[in-house]
Sequence to fold (431 residues):
Amino acid sequence: MITSVAGLLSAFQAKQLELLKAQSVVHAPTIGEMYEGLTRKTLERAIPASLGLRIVDGFVMGHDAKLSPQVDAMLVMGNAGKLIPHTSRYAWPIRDVLAVFEVKKNLFGKDLADSLSKMGSIAIMHRAYLRSNEPKDVNFRPSSRAFARLAGRFPTQSELDDLHSIPGEWTRMIAAEQLAPVRIVWGYEGYADEAALRNALIEQIKKNMGVEGLAPPALPNLIICRRNSILKMSGHPYIVPLEEDWWALIASDRDNPIRLLIELVWTRLSNQFDAAFPMDDTLEIERLAPLLWGRVETLGLLLGWRYRASALNRKDLSELEKTPGKQWEPAEIDQNEAVVIQMACAKGGLNVDDPAFVRHSRREGFDTRAIIDSLVSKRLFAWTTETTARPITNTIQMTITPDGRHWAAENGALLALWIKRHWPTPTGSVE
Fold:
């Protein structure tokens, strides 16, 4: 569904762009309004009408009633927004803002810097709102699962309570992104290719080291320029496992950026309304090229981020584009892992020192910790304590294919699609 919707929206937008470019308008503000209007029309087609949401422009209003810089489009809920007298613009409370869009006809150095500043100020406003009036009764399960996929373990309560711990910084960033407006910069023209866009962002980060608005938690979730994009891997939904405590924070892509936009916005809506959105109808995985890693470090009582930029150049990116696109597939498991998954799902988790588990492992000839470590490395499980682990999701779907191999996945719909594509008549499946 996502790829199909993205394709339709891309075709719609391409046709409308042709109409805009054919206009003889030279008045800069009017040109800006034309592109902002196109953006709003595109977004309206991506948002389910049943949710009763609106797309408006104006200002985000913080908990202290202060206003953000003017934004070109906001996806909002509720009716608490205030129409600014004698205009069509609104001031909307940040608690009810689901996404914010900054639109640029041309995205180059100054425009990129301006966009990063605006998006950063909104992220800072939202953090101030959380500190002053932290929402009650929020289901942070999506953030807990994102942390587990990142670190291979669930956050402990002490880490969540310790504001000066490295895991605490990770969890606060992931949890804040679950609740914050999705922040998207949309440039219709500008940097010619993926490499130029990557280099421009790195230069902006270098120039502004130590500036709160360009720290990882405040960076935009998505920057689009032509068909190139830069994506923040903050866990909703995109995230990859840590590499020696380095977090792959940002990656780039040169495919259809609207697909990434839909994934981000639909995930935000799913978290907000606890609703299931249509899954993708393809097994294709986005070709993401790593751009920036970050690692949280401490110096005395100070805690901050250290960066490591990717060395990929224009030639490397071109070669990467030539490689065959990756297809999603479930994790391959052995028969012992399949039994352990069933045991863990039935009990809600497993302790490697549990006598029954130890006896079973001895009979079957495997080590309890080694098999749990294997399932954690595949991000089917995550540790909850030093000896206890449980599935990252509530259920794990498993199947045996006709060639006798065992497979497992947390997404049953994707697993069913994968089976249909490769084995139209599987031997059977078990949940």
